[in-house]
């Protein structure tokens, strides 16, 4: 990953390929943001005027490169838009700083080192800038090495982000920088897994990757293979996985802290490829379905992040891993599965597979009686129809908890929206042969899926469900610190939930 260094020298004095400054949109034109004072001085105080001449406005995401004047060591000054100037007395919003730093880092792909002279006097500002830069610099080049030699136009990500203008000797500042690095590493770990093609990432190889990371970070892992799953009665996971040459796994990865007062269970949908099964997806709907394990990737990364940060909450991750394929051994529409909970499910549509693997994992997670279960899943196309590609939906069996999770997601910069679980939609899943069907009304399909999961949550356990089908995989042009492909959405929300559980502000 891109390295983060904390510099004591001024933005003008640092040797780098570029120096990044912030520019905001003021009522009378662009305004240079705090942190850029030394650079502005080298422009004789005319940086804002120069930018205006070049047509810059300070709009969010705007990137303007200009040659550095004498007095600035770096050859290039990159001004990045921060959006509207904050109201008097307010600092820049953390998300505005993350996005701007991300856009700048992205624009500097191919460079070795950039000095970031964005607002960093406050510890929280420095953390936001560092995190945004490290996330924005990300690119998935694992399958197209050799730089530009293969004619693929690939540039190496910016190698080093040097933060200037902060207090690198200050303890709180160092801690904030370390936190930014840990979170960015883990979001990027999730992105790497999501982007890895399904011919290399399948349940068994995913489980091996978890085992390796667990060794490194002192986590406890248990892997149930197809034999153990069959013997244990995991009818949901087996029913989805039985059609594939790559058999399913249930992976438990646990972080414990001796000071913990709370225990959280994170459950991730880990369909390493979703073809739809016998209810096969049509062409046009399956090209990006390697992303259907984004929930499991987020859960795994969040557990590692909790360990790296030493969060004082016990966190158990449950990864429900399977490949959903059509074959002679696949579950047929109309088949009835006996789930790990004992409930029977009539599978009307084999493409509604996520809820089947999650149901077993949620039942299993419930047996440990955690203080809360949070599942993360690319569960329904209906949620994408409802909320678009940037927001995930939050459902829960507890209104206060749903509100709290929404607030946390907002704080960390993961857009989301609360969604209801209307009881009347349960009837649509009534089955003439089984306890429940895996499909119900098409209208409100995301909520129907949520209601299905709710039936598998242990009595009295607080539960929230994040349907990340929209934002998990980004197909458009990169923006802010969001690259193309896997986004890692959910990771930062889960980690913050664990931190707040430790602080006693939730649950
Ligand atoms: N993995 C898909 C949901 C999905 C859609 C994720 C788009 C990411 C982007 C899920 O398994 C699925 O196929 N859901 C069906 C359920 C339906 C058959 C009840 C859907 O949403 O169409
Ligand atoms: Mn599906
Ligand atoms: Zn799926």
From TrEMBL:
- Keyword list, A-Z: Aminopeptidase, Cytoplasm, Hydrolase, Manganese, Metal-binding, Protease
| Primary site of residence | cytoplasm
Kindly give the Pfam families that the UniProt entry links to this protein. Answer: Peptidase_M17, Peptidase_M17_N
Query: Where does it live in the cell?
Result: Cytoplasm
List the InterPro entries. Leucine_aapep/pepB, Macro_dom-like, Peptidase_M17_C, Peptidase_M17_leu_NH2_pept, Peptidase_M17_N
HAMAP family in alphabetical order: Cytosol_peptidase_M17
* Protein's UniProt name: Probable cytosol aminopeptidase
Organism name? Streptantibioticus rubrisoli
Gene name of the encoded protein: pepA
């Amino acid at each position: 990953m891109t390295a983060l260094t904390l510099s004591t020298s001024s933005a003008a004095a640092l040797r780098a390929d570029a120096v990044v400054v912030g520019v905001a949109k003021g009522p009378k034109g662009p305004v240079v943001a705090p942190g850029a004072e030394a650079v502005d001085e080298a422009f004789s105080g005319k940086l804002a005027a120069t930018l205006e001449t070049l047509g810059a406005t300070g709009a969010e995401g705007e990137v303007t490169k200009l040659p550095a004047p004498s007095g600035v060591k770096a050859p290039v000054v990159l001004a990045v838009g921060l959006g509207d100037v904050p109201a008097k007395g307010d600092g820049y919003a953390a998300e505005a700083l993350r996005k701007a730093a991300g856009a700048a880092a992205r624009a500097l792909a191919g460079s070795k080192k950039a000095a970031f002279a964005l607002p960093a006097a406050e510890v929280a500002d420095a953390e936001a800038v560092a995190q945004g830069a490290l996330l924005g610099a990300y690119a998935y080049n694992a399958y197209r090495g050799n730089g530009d030699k293969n004619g693929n136009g690939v540039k190496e990500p910016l190698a080093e982000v040097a933060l200037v203008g902060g207090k690198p000797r200050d303890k709180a500042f160092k801690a904030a920088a370390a936190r930014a690095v840990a979170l960015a590493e883990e979001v990027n770990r999730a992105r790497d897994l999501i982007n890895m093609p399904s011919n290399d990432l399948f349940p068994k190889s995913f489980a091996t990757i978890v085992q390796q990371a667990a060794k490194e970070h002192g986590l406890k892992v248990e892997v149930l293979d197809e034999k153990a799953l069959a013997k244990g009665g995991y009818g949901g996971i087996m029913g989805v996985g039985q059609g594939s040459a790559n058999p399913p796994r249930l992976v438990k990865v646990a972080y414990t802290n001796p000071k913990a007062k709370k225990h959280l269970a994170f459950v991730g949908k880990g369909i390493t490829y979703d073809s739809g099964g016998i209810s096969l997806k049509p062409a046009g709907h399956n090209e990006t379905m390697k992303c259907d394990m984004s929930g499991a990737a987020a859960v795994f990364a969040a557990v590692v992040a909790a360990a790296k940060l030493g969060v004082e909450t016990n966190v158990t991750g449950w990864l429900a891993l399977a490949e959903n394929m059509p074959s002679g051994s696949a579950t047929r529409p109309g088949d009835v599965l006996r789930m790990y909970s004992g409930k029977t499910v009539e599978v009307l549509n084999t493409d509604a597979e996520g809820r089947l693997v999650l149901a077993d994992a949620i039942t299993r997670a419930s047996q440990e009686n955690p203080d809360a279960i949070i599942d993360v899943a690319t569960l329904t196309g209906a949620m994408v129809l409802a909320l678009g590609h940037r927001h995930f939906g939050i459902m829960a069996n507890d209104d206060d908890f749903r509100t709290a999770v929404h607030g946390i997601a907002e704080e960390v910069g993961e857009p989301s929206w609360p969604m209801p679980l209307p009881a009347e939609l349960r009837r649509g899943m009534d089955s003439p042969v089984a306890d429940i069907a895996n499909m119900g009304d098409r209208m409100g399909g995301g909520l129907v899926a949520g209601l299905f999961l709710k039936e598998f949550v242990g009595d009295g356990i607080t539960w929230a469900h994040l349907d990340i089908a929209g934002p998990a995989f980004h197909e458009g042009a990169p923006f802010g610190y969001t690259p193309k492909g896997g986004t890692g959405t959910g990771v930062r929300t889960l980690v913050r939930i664990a931190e707040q559980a430790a602080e006693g502000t939730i649950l």
